[in-house]
Design a protein that fits this description.
single chain, about 450 residues, alpha/beta, Rossmann fold, 2 domains, 6-stranded parallel β-sheet, 16 helices, 16 strands, binds adenosine-5'-diphosphate-glucose
Length: about 450
Amino acid sequence: MSRLVVISNRLADPRKPAAGGLAVALGDALSQTGGLWFGWSGNITEDGTPGEGDLRVRQAGAVTLATVDLSREDHDSYYLGYSNSVLWPVFHYRLDLADFNASYIAGYRRVNQMYARKLLPLLKNDDIIWVHDYHLIPLAAELRAMGCKQRIGFFLHIPVPPPLIMAAIPQHEWLMRSLFAYDLVGLQSECDVAHFTRYVRNEASAEELEDSRVRAFGATVVVRAFPIGIDVDEFTRLANAPEAVETCERMREEYSRRRLLMGVDRLDYSKGLPHRVRAYRELLDRYPENRKSATLIMIASPSRDDVNAYSDLRQELEGLCGAVNGDYGELDWMPVRYIHRMVARKRVPGLCRAASVGLVTPLRDGMNLVAKEYVVAQDPEDPGVLVLSRFAGAAEQLKEALLVNPYDTQGMADSIQQALQMPLAERQERHQKLMAGIREHDVHWWRREFLGALETAGA
Ligand code: ADQ
């Protein structure tokens, strides 16, 4: 069996339970092959030289972890700049939030080149290399330029925007051409594959061949959707563990007279958090029977605080929540509980289970794993209802959720009301179907499908 090499911006020690499903799934595959996981250490060296970083290699069980530090300048231009102020907003269709500062691209290229340089001597001839996400799009091209011949696959965790939105990035052609240095490009949804294919057809006169192969820029790559899943068994275990059970019981006791609606997200403008609060406000307005009986819990963990768009969002959200509480609240009822914090992973399933309605309402999302976690955490005898944005990648799979358009405040309020009133039999039926799909297409399925396709791609 070939050794697996995973490269991602951040890595996690796969032996630690806090690592989450993705790290566990990748960790399993890495352990089985005595693999190598390479990425940024998370450290910034204030006086470091751009394009240079110390490589640290350590062992975590059967897995080798190799990390490099970033200089302040590299971190600011590669990570905060090009990755999170150009690629993240544009790939989520938010040209209005993109900062096309011309200096960022140099840092992005420099760090990808440095990663290739540091990684190359660690590689063996028959390694299989799996690169993750938008921070590392040009990594294969850099590796190939240094003579790397191994099979390389890429998985993009975020959406692919329509071609004309992509074309707003000054280096769009270079970015898309870089993807053709991979043997396999995996995307989250069929919608993403369609956008990718349309782009290369329009902009690079690509030829679509058999077996999901696309030819452009003088190279051929396999492009397919591999919708990521969660580790259902791990999450079920977590849901049955004392911490989750206790969290659920505490919530039910605290809110015994209320129906809970819940959202757990990173505080990110892609997640549609203000839109959710507006829809909830509309719900209280249009369906006053929910006043004093519904409570919205919004848990939004701090994220990328040093990018401006995020501090603006935080202010907007605090203003909206404050206004709902001020306008509708009573001495004994607070309509919204907004918590700007990360909750411990082991408590997440308990929170999900206590909520009658799970609100997952992004404006755009590669997949959204919270949607799947919410379903898995439910009691099958008395499950809550998932209200899911049609703009999350997960909506292609989770058809039995109540699908909503987060821009349509009234429509979303109506769907939340429908969720609150849904009869038990319908809730059970929807839950059963959702569960079956989530179980079949779990994170281990995703990993097997991707690595299976990579084995044969380009062969
Ligand atoms: P994210 O944008 O981070 O990931 P998501 O898929 O929702 O989004 O996963 C978030 C994970 O973090 C979930 O496991 C969730 O439980 C946890 N989480 C979120 N907020 C939390 C909080 N406040 N406290 C505790 N835990 C919290 C990117 C893409 C997604 C894609 C994933 C995986 O943006 O579209 O689904 O990668 O490919």
